Amino acid sequence: MGDHIHNIRQLIERNHFPAVDSFFELPAAGSGRTYFRVFFRGSPQASLLACFNESVSENIAQFSFTRHFLNKGLRVPEIIARDETYRYFLLEDLGDKDLFQLVQKGFNQSTINTYKQVILDLLKFQTDGFQGIDLDVAHPVRIFNKKAVLWDLNYFKYYFVKPHNIVFDENKLEDDFRTFATYLLGAEMNFFNYRDFQSRNIMLKDGLPWYIDFQGGRQGPLQYDLVSLLYQAKAKLPEKLREELLGFYLDNLEKILPGKKESFLCFYNEYILFRTLQVLGAYGFRGKVEGKAHFLESIPFALQSLRQILKNRPLHFKIPELQRVLESVAALGEEKTYKLPEGKLTVNISSFSYKKTGIPADPTDNGGGFVFDCRALPNPHRDKTLRDFNGKEPPVVAFLDSKTEMQFFLKQVFQLVEQSCDSYLRRNFSHLQISFGCTGGKHRSVYSAEKLANHLSGKFGEQIEVRLHHHLLEAERRAAR
Q1: Which of 56, 122, 213, 292 is deepest in the core (most CB within 10 A)?
Q2: Which of 105, 79, 74, 104 is nearest to 90 (CA)?
Q3: Which pLDDT tens digit goes with each residue over 77-124?
Q4: Strand partners for 345
Q5: Do domains 2-92 and 99-330 have the same CATH topology?
Q6: Where are the domains of the chain?
């Protein structure tokens, strides 16, 4: 952070701004960019945003697209200055209020009118905004093509389907992905595809919507961005309102490009599904892999949206293996908003397989906790008579109870965890995460998690709430349904 502050100060000084009073780092979102709000000392100069992003190609796209959209009269934040490396920018500060915050208060007529203004602006981005834009700087691709579609579908496969241990035929699923991609690319592509046109990227300032995070834009279809806006899972637009806004979009599309309505609707359901899968992949990566609680909290809403799509949005083609995978994904029930009881410490204890499931993500914003490696301990799997049992069942429990190494390991674990629990209780902390891993995730890790859960419940009683999860066992149960 220190280097960023130093470099931003130099950029501010070179552009003759007043002396800086303070920097305030803004919370990280889904991108790799770092933002600071900058305030100036003893000056009426309004605050501005300073941004650092390591990706020069992405920054060049943002710089070029911003100048283009400003020339088109679209409301995007001005880039006030940049450094010679294209890594640091000074930006117009649009404040903190966005459309997502507004919809959390409900859908009154004022909010609906804001959505209609956003749709009119979207049409301008897609049509007038596309005219004359320099797509040679687009990052990472200049056009929505088959490769880009397959990237997103495989993102869904690798970061959501596989981490949830959903079984599928790899060859058949890839065939269905290609079928899906071919159909999507039948839509007309001569428009600007904003790429992430959703309520968190629509700021509200001076009574009007303003637009950010368009640097991933490319040439593409109309449907994708409207779907991104109307089917943003956590915004939870009522279906009746979605249909009203779809009608509003189509009516205004006809005014700009007569005769497009029918062809638009031929691909609409397919883009709803495609965008939902892309979002689930992103939530899986940001939540499951990176452990960001905001994205984990969004998964239940996306799953609910997927269930509604499968029920109410028929496709124009057959994708049997993907359909089966989607039904398995829609049936997932463990993704719930993680709520903590007030007035006590929640201790989340998990067992996992290093090979099959990986270290569990922290469902809170704390970033993780203890991870104990059980792989150096005596392994019941080496005894053929124990392989079909797990660490909760008597034969494995008896085996591990008899091993000195296991009991010595648990004694040290108990001491470490008790010390943290005592400290967390004194300091009124609300959550502690503890994970045990072994090779297969069925024996040693399960046994250890069970023993610690029983020990802590006995020692701390009502002061704590123990939540116990066996990730490999739970995944096997889901697969067997």
Answers
A1: 122
A2: 79
A3: 999 999 999 999 999 999 999 999 999 889 999 999 999 999 999 999
A4: 464
A5: no
A6: 2-92, 99-330, 345-480
CB 70 within 8 A of CB 252: no
**Domain 99-330 part of CATH 3.90.1200.10:** yes
| Amino acid of residue 392 | K
Residue with tokens 């149960």: 477
For 377-408, give the DSSP string. Answer: S--GGGSTTTTTS-TTSHHHHHHHHT-HHHHH
- Distance in angstroms (rounded) separating the CA atoms of residues 275 and 280: 9
Question: Phi, psi (5° rounding) for residue 74?
Answer: -85, 145
Please say whether the beta carbons of 335 and 300 come within 8 A.
yes
Q: What is the dihedral of CA 145, 151, 157, 163, to 10 degrees?
A: -160
Q: What is the pTM of this model?
A: 0.72
Domain 2-92 belongs to what topology?
Phosphorylase Kinase; domain 1 (3.30.200)
Between strands 20-25 and 34-40, the pairing is antiparallel
446-479 pLDDT, tens digit each: 999 999 999 999 999 999 999 999 988 987 776 6
